[in-house]
Amino acid sequence: MKTKLLAVLLLAGSALVAAPRMVVGIGVGVPPPAPVAAYVAPPGPGYAWVGGYWARRPYPRAYWVAPRYFGHRYYRGNWRR
Asked: Taking a C-beta distance cutoff of 8 angstroms, is the pair 66, 51 a contact?
């Protein structure tokens, strides 16, 4: 009887150790404010916003094409007419 009880306790104990753990978190307080996008005026005519900074266009009416990954290839950003 004691060996059966010991075996059951051993199996139950190992099941508790191997069981997945669940964590419940409770947040108290106010969430931080969302960042506000501010408009930044260009430094002058002929500038375009390129990846976080202002850059002068290489020729009139040029536009920036952002870098991208397409068809298992990486394409650098470039200016287009």
From this structure: yes
